[in-house]
Amino acid sequence: MDDGRKPGSPVASLIERFKAHQATIGVIGLGYVGLPLGCTMGRKRFNVLGFDIDPAKVEQINTGRSYLSHIDAQEIAGLRGSGHLTATTDFRRLAECDAIILCVPTPLTRQREPDLTFVIRTAESILSHLRRGQLVVLESTTYPGTTRDVMRPILERGGLKSGRDFFLAYSPEREDPGNASFSTATIPKVVGGDGPEALSLASALYGEVVTHTVPVSSLEAAEAVKLTENIFRSVNIALVNELKVVFEAMDIDVWEVIEAAKSKPFGYMPFYPGPGLGGHCIPIDPFYLTWKAREFDVATRFVELAGEINTAMPMRVVARALEALNERAGRAAKGSRMLILGVAYKKNVDDTRESPAFRIMELLEKRGAEVEFHDPMVAEIPMTREHPEFAGRRSVPLTKDVVAGFDAAIICTDHDAVDYANLVAWSRLVIDTRNVCARMGATAGHVVKA
Q: What are phi and psi of 98, to 5 degrees?
């Protein structure tokens, strides 16, 4: 065999441990990717060690509680009780793990360049405890070449070599919080390895956890898959955002057009406009590719244009809202009171990362408006890198008296838990960026689509 799986070899032995679910799996980063992955592996009877630098997360997991709305506390408590999930801040315990999976953030700098700080620091932490025979997998979204050119040199500083002493792989995360149709276990896993042994090991591990694996030829191909998936979404969302602006000028409802277009059973896939992009992937991933492409003197005009269109949408929403406020109430932005409906980046989750609602709030306040928010999933805005000024602000109740005190309500996130009929009945003006009022039959003359 050319993948190292000779009977009795370290690779073959580790594959057998994976197949028997007798291995200990370390998951570094217990956020929206790492915690669901750790729970899924724990349900498959692997012994999971979760690592995080946040002692509050570790304490909550070890006492059977959850800090993510889509992860049930009873599940964590059950996994803790069975011994299949333990959390720790002690990175010395990495030496206990047969496989180490990195699920750490890969944000952008203010100059929209890749920020690999978390990947580099985590790799350096692993280096101190790396031992022979371990599988190390990066799941964080990044540009092609990160695993080979950034992670591998760090891990090899201690003298151990990838492909000989330890094994390095990349498998992009595909989490979609709030999606009831798919979970970690039911989403196929793309896997690329630094050599055939690493690919065999990673495929064997994930093959015991998810519906099936999709091996690709290299680390770089696997890294490119994740970027391709999210750039596809970014470009198509930019397209419908631009169509919204064009059709609006023609007095055509873009949502009506999309609903009719998706009746075509081939050659069309519906995407929907909105107030801008949010989350940890779509607003960020295109810039990882455009940054890397410059190294090869390749222009990514199409991708960059999509990013520009999507980035401009919050400004478009604010302009539309203030125009409607002036036309219908004769009021300017300064001194007006604006209620933001939803600061989570998508419906029915509590994740606020890169939420366009924060940019909308910022733009309104710069124009002199007083801004508050209601979100049934977010009681208090957490600290964010881009908008630390909003940290600690609390959601106001959605009651008749509260809503009546605002000059306008802007729907940024269409959570199912909101009563849109009441919102429309109680509001002086509603700016709907998600078409949720029309979908719910809560139409009125003072509801403006944006």
A: -85, -30
Highest CATH level, class, for 10-221: alpha beta
Q: In this predicted model, what pLDDT tens digit does every residue of 290-314 receive, in sequence order?
A: 999 999 999 999 999 998 999 999 9
User: Cβ distance 189 to 210 under 8 Å?
Assistant: yes
Question: In Å, what is the CA distance from 304 to each residue of 24, 265, 307?
Answer: 42, 30, 5
Task: Classify domain 253-449 by CATH architecture.
Answer: 3-Layer(aba) Sandwich (3.40)
**CA 129 – CA 51 distance, rounded (Å):** 13
DSSP code string of 79-118: HHHHTSEEEES-GGGGGG-SEEEE-----B-TTS-B--HH
Q: Would you kindly state where each structural domain of the chain is located, as residue ranges?
A: 10-221, 253-449
- Dig out the tokens for 96 from the structure: 């206990």
Confirm if 227 and 143 have CB atoms less than 8 A apart. Answer: yes
- According to DSSP H, which parts of 253-344 are helical? 254-261, 285-294, 301-329
Would you please indicate which residues are annotated as catalytic (active-site) residues? 281
* 328-344 confidence digits (pLDDT tens): 989 999 999 999 999 99
Q: What are phi and psi of 187, to 5 degrees?
A: -100, 125
Residues in the chain: 450
pTM: 0.92
Cα distance between residue 304 and residue 285, in whole Å: 11
203: nearest Cα among 412, 4, 425? 4
The residue assigned the tokens 């985590």 is 122
- What are the angstrom distances between the C-alpha of 23 and each of 44, 96, 128? 11, 10, 21
Answer for the pair 188, 213: CB distance below 8 angstroms, yes or no.
yes
